[in-house]
Amino acid sequence: MALGPRLDIRQSQSLVMTPQLQQAIKLLALSNLEIETFIGDALDANPLLEVGDGAPPAADAPGDDQDLRRTTLESSPVDQLIGEGRAEDDRPLDIDAAALDRDRDPGDADWGTEFRSAPGEAGPGIDERGEGEASLAEHLHAQIGPATRDPAAAFVARHLVGLLDEAGYLPITLAEVAADLGVDQALAEAGLALLQSLDPTGVGARSLGECLALQAREADRHDPCMARLLENLDLLARGELARLKRICGVDDEDFAEMMAELRGYDPKPGLRFGSSGGEAVTPDILITPGAEGGWDVQLNQATLPQLIVNRSYYVEMRGACDDKAARAWLSDKLADANWLLKALDQRAKTILKVASELVRQQDGFFRHGVSQLKPLTLRTVAEAIAMHESTVSRVTSNKYLHCERGTFELKYFFTSGVGSTEGEGGASAEAVKAVIRQLIDAEDPKAILSDDTLVDLLKDKGFELARRTVAKYREAIGLGSSVQRRRQKALAGVR
Question: Which residue ranges form the domains of the chain, and what is each CATH number?
């Protein structure tokens, strides 16, 4: 058979990724604060866009079993004003990541990195997303349980840890702490004493003198002369050494030794550790109890400006356009504004849809706490709301949810499961960690629980885990081995 050139007609389908569609999909992965920055840039670039007054109304989503309330964002009726939008760009944001990867520009590095995770992955665990270096709060929380058997004092101490500044100082008085917690002064003092007994020495002090005094006691150098020196640090700051020496009642040699000892202390012990939380987190989604025992799910409108199109300005500018190039530029700006409003509207609806399903799946957590946190994957949520896993992954990326129990990253609710003695779906790894912490906090200093013992106790509570898994979870929450905890509690008993 002879070979020769010929013409063939073939029909195929492909997904064309326009720049507008690419940007719309990327908007899903941005937090509300990042969206606010993006909108600010859009306002500078497009004269037809303006920030509207007032927040859009909320409407109940029909058909929800738990009466989840969803915020409905108003879209601009720009299509009714004039039909100059780019209809070919109005494509769904819920697209298979594999299709996106086939059609993306290979030279676009930023676009390619968004879809490197394999479909079905539940994302990294909450313990894998930290900064690496332990924070001061984490370091102190890990010591409180082994250091005392008094749950009330431990409760106060953990509350005080949350009040410490970066240097490790307590900026408020114990009277304020007692009033906030509704406890007596004696219990507040017991909690502070427990906190000040932890490493690093000097943490929990209310002044520089108290911080240095704690370190002097640790070094067994807090004699009456050193106490007077620490009570008059203002004289040392002003350089009145002769007067300070007379107050302390020491000679030149002893005073020089005291000053050398003082220079060896750390005036800011908390700075040895990493930042406890970095920048302040602003929640993107607000969860509040709703009617009939349900939940209200809303976007945080305080960080989400409402955009509108200035119709009168558009009509005025269009009437003043005489040449073809000016009309084309104005049409492009109108189309860009139209696209942005639609993209933000669809982003909001997608986020609320995913968040509503997340709240429905983890209803036990919102009602009873971490012990009721269920294993959950992206696939489970995606199948429930008929979306692709990559869309759910983008929605839950870099976004935070605020409820009565605190502020949590959305990825926190996607946890791996562990075996259950009942064989019914298992339990969340975070719930198991919480139980391990409770068991270790309540252990007897004279009968420290080994990992094998913890395995048996967890089995009694319905968790089927191997010893190495228990050890991994124990280390992940900052608790030492049985030998380390026995040593820590022995030292705490001596103090």
Answer: 19-127+283-403 (no CATH), 132-277 (no CATH), 416-494 (1.10.10.60)
